[in-house]
Amino acid sequence: MTDEIEKGHAGQAFGDFLKEQGTYEETTEDAVKRVLAFQLAEAMKAQGISKVEMAKRLETSRSQLDRLLDPEHDGVTLGILARAAKAVGRGIRLELT
To answer: Which fold has domain 25-87?
Structure first.
Protein backbone atom coordinates (compact mmCIF):
# COMPACT_ATOMS: atom_id res chain seq x y z
CA MET A 1 0.00 0.00 0.00
CA THR A 2 1.30 3.48 -0.87
CA ASP A 3 0.58 6.91 0.52
CA GLU A 4 0.06 8.38 -2.94
CA ILE A 5 -3.39 9.73 -3.78
CA GLU A 6 -4.79 8.33 -6.96
CA LYS A 7 -5.76 11.08 -9.36
CA GLY A 8 -8.71 10.86 -11.65
CA HIS A 9 -12.44 10.56 -11.48
CA ALA A 10 -13.69 9.93 -7.95
CA GLY A 11 -17.11 8.72 -9.05
CA GLN A 12 -20.36 9.98 -10.38
CA ALA A 13 -21.68 13.42 -9.58
CA PHE A 14 -24.08 13.57 -6.66
CA GLY A 15 -26.80 14.98 -8.92
CA ASP A 16 -26.46 11.96 -11.19
CA PHE A 17 -26.76 9.66 -8.19
CA LEU A 18 -29.96 11.42 -7.05
CA LYS A 19 -31.41 11.14 -10.56
CA GLU A 20 -30.68 7.41 -10.58
CA GLN A 21 -32.45 7.11 -7.23
CA GLY A 22 -35.43 9.10 -8.53
CA THR A 23 -35.10 11.78 -5.83
CA TYR A 24 -33.33 14.60 -7.69
CA GLU A 25 -36.30 16.97 -8.05
CA GLU A 26 -37.53 16.49 -4.49
CA THR A 27 -34.03 16.86 -3.04
CA THR A 28 -33.36 19.98 -5.10
CA GLU A 29 -36.65 21.57 -4.02
CA ASP A 30 -35.88 20.81 -0.37
CA ALA A 31 -32.39 22.28 -0.68
CA VAL A 32 -33.67 25.48 -2.29
CA LYS A 33 -36.29 25.94 0.43
CA ARG A 34 -33.69 25.39 3.16
CA VAL A 35 -31.31 27.91 1.61
CA LEU A 36 -34.02 30.55 1.20
CA ALA A 37 -35.25 30.10 4.77
CA PHE A 38 -31.67 30.32 6.05
CA GLN A 39 -30.87 33.42 4.00
CA LEU A 40 -34.03 35.16 5.13
CA ALA A 41 -33.38 34.36 8.79
CA GLU A 42 -29.77 35.55 8.46
CA ALA A 43 -30.86 38.83 6.82
CA MET A 44 -33.34 39.38 9.64
CA LYS A 45 -30.65 38.68 12.24
CA ALA A 46 -28.10 40.95 10.54
CA GLN A 47 -30.61 43.80 10.48
CA GLY A 48 -31.95 43.16 13.97
CA ILE A 49 -35.46 42.44 12.69
CA SER A 50 -37.55 40.42 15.13
CA LYS A 51 -40.15 37.92 13.99
CA VAL A 52 -42.88 40.23 15.25
CA GLU A 53 -41.48 43.14 13.23
CA MET A 54 -41.02 40.97 10.14
CA ALA A 55 -44.60 39.72 10.38
CA LYS A 56 -45.77 43.36 10.54
CA ARG A 57 -43.69 44.23 7.47
CA LEU A 58 -45.26 41.33 5.59
CA GLU A 59 -48.73 42.16 6.92
CA THR A 60 -49.13 38.59 8.07
CA SER A 61 -49.22 36.61 11.28
CA ARG A 62 -46.26 35.41 13.29
CA SER A 63 -47.35 31.80 12.68
CA GLN A 64 -47.34 32.40 8.91
CA LEU A 65 -43.82 33.82 9.21
CA ASP A 66 -42.77 30.76 11.22
CA ARG A 67 -43.99 28.57 8.35
CA LEU A 68 -41.99 30.68 5.89
CA LEU A 69 -38.85 30.27 7.98
CA ASP A 70 -39.43 26.54 8.52
CA PRO A 71 -37.30 24.62 6.00
CA GLU A 72 -39.61 21.61 6.36
CA HIS A 73 -42.73 23.54 5.32
CA ASP A 74 -43.20 23.42 1.56
CA GLY A 75 -46.39 25.48 1.17
CA VAL A 76 -44.58 28.78 0.59
CA THR A 77 -45.58 30.79 -2.46
CA LEU A 78 -43.38 32.80 -4.74
CA GLY A 79 -45.37 35.91 -3.79
CA ILE A 80 -44.59 35.63 -0.07
CA LEU A 81 -40.94 34.92 -0.83
CA ALA A 82 -40.74 38.06 -2.96
CA ARG A 83 -42.44 40.15 -0.25
CA ALA A 84 -40.14 38.72 2.43
CA ALA A 85 -37.05 39.45 0.35
CA LYS A 86 -38.21 43.02 -0.22
CA ALA A 87 -38.92 43.45 3.51
CA VAL A 88 -35.22 42.84 4.26
CA GLY A 89 -34.00 44.93 1.32
CA ARG A 90 -33.20 41.98 -0.90
CA GLY A 91 -34.63 40.42 -4.03
CA ILE A 92 -35.03 36.93 -5.40
CA ARG A 93 -33.80 35.57 -8.69
CA LEU A 94 -35.25 32.55 -10.42
CA GLU A 95 -34.01 30.79 -13.49
CA LEU A 96 -34.87 27.72 -15.44
CA THR A 97 -32.05 25.25 -15.83
So the answer is: 434 Repressor (Amino-terminal Domain) (1.10.260)
